[in-house]
Write a structure and sequence with these properties.
single chain, 299 residues, 0% strand, MetI-like fold
């Protein structure tokens, strides 16, 4: 049985050449306007990052030029070398990497485990546990800073890597994301594995995880990005400069007038180093990321 496309004018559906040509012109005009607006929005969003990245390689004369110079007249790495002389960048980079990697791994493991339990297992209190997860999503992050700080203080973990990692080793967002994604896995696959004698650990490790790689990549990007950019919590729980992460070290350098005066180039170089790992992680996982965003929550 044939269907009639009612989304186009009747003259277009009947194939009138003049009407078809006019319709195609209007369609091209709409698309051109749409792509122009989107391109303008993309340019506005990227302009600060482009300025930051290019300024990191400019000479001092280009940075202070009026009118501003976008493209460096002479490319230089002097600001990076000066920054390494003033700050222990390898140590701060190591701190940020260590914290971000362990926080990301913790979320991937614990959130996927709880997400599998909430999605596919039946146990007493399953509904209230999921309700607590949803409730935790509504609690502002800053509201939890004081309880977390008191907890870390009572455990004697302040000024340590554990204080930077443990409070963020699992999160409600990750549990919700993994639960919604794992719910889309057919129950027949799990039932067949159980009939074959597979235990829950085998099902989780060999069946569930390979099927939820897009959601894992999505969670990894969000978690790594949030941990890498986290500023307030590391600032609160660390007093030893050797435990500073990159954002904290760069911020303390920026507010120190004895070091940062006239050092816009070094600040741009430091900001470039902070942003670069996030870009690399996103580029590496973008295929899984877009797939995970498109399919998470569907069943």
């Amino acid at each position: 049985m044939s269907t009639v496309d009612t989304s186009r004018p009747s003259a277009v559906r009947t194939g009138d050449p003049a009407t078809l040509a006019a319709f195609r012109r209007r369609d091209r005009t709409r698309k051109t306007l749409l792509y122009t607006l989107l391109s303008f929005g993309l340019l506005v969003m990227l302009a600060p990052f482009l300025w930051m990245g290019l300024s990191a390689f400019k000479t001092t004369e280009d940075l202070t030029a009026s009118p501003p110079v976008w493209i460096p007249t002479e490319w230089t790495l002097a600001h990076f070398r000066d920054l390494l002389d003033v700050l222990n960048m390898p140590l701060h980079f190591f701190n940020s990497t260590l914290v971000a990697v362990f926080v990301t791994l913790g979320n991937l493991v614990f959130c996927s485990m709880l997400g599998y339990a909430l999605a596919k297992l039946n146990f007493f209190g399953k509904g209230p546990v999921f309700g607590l997860v949803l409730g935790a999503l509504m609690v502002p992050m800053n509201l939890m800073l004081i309880p977390k700080f008191v907890l870390m203080s009572q455990f004697g973990l302040l000024d340590s890597y554990a204080a930077l990692i443990l409070p963020f080793a699992a999160g409600a967002f990750g549990v919700f994301l993994m639960r919604q994604f794992i719910s889309s896995v057919p129950d027949e696959l799990i039932d067949a594995a159980r009939v074959d004698g597979a235990n829950e650990w085998f099902i989780y490790w060999r069946i569930i995880l390979p099927l939820v790689k897009p959601a894992m990549a999505t969670l990894a990007i969000f978690t790594f990005m949030g941990s890498w950019n986290n500023f307030l919590w590391p600032l609160i729980v660390t007093n030893d400069p050797d435990k500073y992460t990159l954002p904290v070290a760069l911020a303390t350098f920026a507010i120190d007038p004895t070091k940062s005066e006239g050092s816009n180039g070094m600040l741009m170089a430091g900001a470039f180093l902070v942003v670069l790992p996030i870009l690399l992680v996103f580029i590496a996982l973008q295929r899984y990321f877009t797939q995970g965003i498109a399919t998470a929550g569907l069943k």
